Amino acid sequence: MGFDQSQNKRVYKFDFKGVDRSTTRFVISVDMVLFLRHHVGVQEGPVLCARKLTADFEAARCQGDHELTNDDLLEYVAGRAAAEARRAEARRPGPTRRKPEPGQVDTPWRKGYV
Fold it and tell me: What Å distances lie between residue 34 and 38, 45, 71, 75, CA to CA?
């Protein structure tokens, strides 16, 4: 539902619609310094907040206001680094071309004889 900014604290608002059509508003805040410290884009804030709310709900901590902490951003950055490492591993080059053995001609069609 948007956010409010008060100095260095951003407060995100999320509305949850229940099966009985009632709406519950959840508020999650984050110190903007954490984004800078961990090199996380501000545009990633809503996704991080949604993840935090989901984790809080699964841990039965749904009452009251919520806050993104330094630990939450550390966990996110570590997961992002691990995903990048997996992508880099997948980009590794395939097998390199073997050098011709003595007596073989080095051509693009290399049939193995002269």
Answer: 6, 11, 10, 12
Q: How far is CA 105 from CA 5, 44, 72, 97, in A?
A: 70, 56, 60, 14
Domain boundaries of the chain, sorted by first residue: 2-80
Q: Report how far residue 1's alpha carbon sits from residue 48's, in angstroms, rounded to the nearest whole number.
A: 15
Residue type, 68: L
The secondary element (H helix, E strand) that includes residue 26 is: strand 23-31
Judge whether 57 and 43 are in contact, CB under 8 Å: no
pLDDT in tens, 26-62: 899 999 999 999 999 999 999 999 899 888 888 887 7
d(CA 1, CA 50): 12
Residue with tokens 């993104």: 68
Considering the entire predicted model, what is its pTM?
0.66
* Residue 38, C-beta contacts closer than 8 angstroms, at least 6 positions apart: 73, 74, 76, 77
